[in-house]
Amino acid sequence: MVVSYNDNLQFGNSVFHVQTEYYKATGTIICNIFKDGKALKKLKKKVEESQDLNQLISEFHDFVLNRLKEGAKLKEVKQTTAFKFYFPEELKAKIVDIIAPYFGAAMNVIWNDAVNNSPDIEAFVSNLLNDLDENLRVVIEHKVRFIIANSLNFKAGKKGVFIGNVERDKVLLAISPFFGVNANSVLDIAQSLYSGDIDKFKNIILKKYNGDKVSELENSLNRLFG
Length: 226
Description:
It is a single chain. Among the domains are: 5-73, Beta-lactamase Inhibitory Protein, Chain:B, domain 1; 162-225, no CATH class. It contains 9 helices and 6 strands; from the N terminus they run ββββαααααββαααα. It has helices spanning 53-73, 89-103, 107-116, 121-129, 134-150, 168-179, 183-192, 198-208, 214-225, and strands spanning 5-11, 14-23, 28-35, 38-46, 162-163, 166-167. It has a 4-stranded antiparallel beta sheet, covered by helices on one side. Strands 5-6 form a two-stranded antiparallel ribbon. It is elongated. 26% of the residues are buried.
């Protein structure tokens, strides 16, 4: 019989509930972390059914419990592996400041899981926040994406290229929260049609956007170009 494990850990005024079980349909052990009754993260581990599942579930459960206990003692994020993409320390510090109060002792285990499983900045934000309680996720994601979009030190794409008097990198950073992985191609199209008229350039980008945050995108572009 395959078992599941449940434990509560209290750090200060917060109670973390850790629930670990095996899902036969996907061949995955999933560990759910809750803080004060709200979902924080699903940690997953693929396993073979021929293995000793109860032992693997127990080991994974204990691993997460130990990471939470360690995290409760740490005063800063202890990152175990490097990013697979450019992510400056200043930007990291700003994002940690935003999310640490929400994640608490789970901060380190959630941060490192996102780092290990993210090939780019868009995937990182998704992996970091997607398992959160919905209401909490909306609040935090808005703050995180705002910091990324307005970070003057974050650089990606084609360096040293200017659109008007603004570096291309900064334009890419501003539109990435809206276009995700398609931001670079959208900017390439807009830049190829750019004739020196900034208003037309902004309109090209706005017409490419099909989401429900047009005014936010327009405001972001206006802040860049004035």
